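Hi Y.,

Following your request, here is the sequence exactly as I used it, all 277 residues.
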Amino acid sequence: MGGRVVALLEARRASELAELVKTYGGVPLHAPALREEPIADLDGVACFLDVIAAGPLDLFIFQTGVGARSLLAAADALGREQELLAALAKTTVALRGPKPAAVLREAGVRIDVRAAEPFTTQTLLEALNGLPLDGKTVAVQHYGETNDELVGALERRGARVLDVATYRWALPEDLGPLHRLFDELLASRVDALVVTSQVQVRHMVQVANQRGLGAALTDLFDPRVVMAPVGPVAAAALRAHGLRVDLEPEHPKMGALVRALAERFATAKPRRVVCPE
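Below is the corresponding structure, written out as tokens. Let me know if you'd prefer a different format.
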């Protein structure tokens, strides 16, 4: 990457992503745009467990590793983890992406259906096409917000949907790094923006609007800044806010994204040096 500055909106795996950037010769600029806030609602989880215990439960969809782990932890805190595992053993278990797989395997949960790359709601629904859902009960573990597209599609196929959420997405408590990102953009000292989730884009735009820079975002991210989302969902979020997508990896993974970005810079013009005023 030749010392180019790569802004990272990732929070949970920020250190891992930064090390990847450094490995390829880049300079990471941390600007986390997301905080995963636990929902301290054991009563809600208990109610959910009561419903699935009453049965029948026909399909359980896990969308994220964080959500799978926190649901198991909440059930354990209630003394009902074995009850949840027993219910999962009797139902079809489907995954939207690869991250819940390790969590569930560790808990001894069988996995029946997996969405294909790029692990979107659409590829999940395609993976479920062979399952009869009319009149069936489907539990959906949500991520930081409700996946209305998924719920709506399941209900149109006749399913009864049970929602469970154990965390929500929020802005970081410290917005300083995001403000620094805007300062560096204003000074033309950012060469790429790496986006790993749709909500990062939404939060970045929210902070830009609070700072009075919302209307200027397309100018701040001028063609010199490579806009690099990890997959189609993050890419769609950029486009929805009027921002470009310059690069998207063949596989929706952080390693593939950073490698593709390094290859992009390897064939680009030398980095422009901006002298301080």
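The first strand starts at residue 5 and ends at 8.

Thanks again,
Q.
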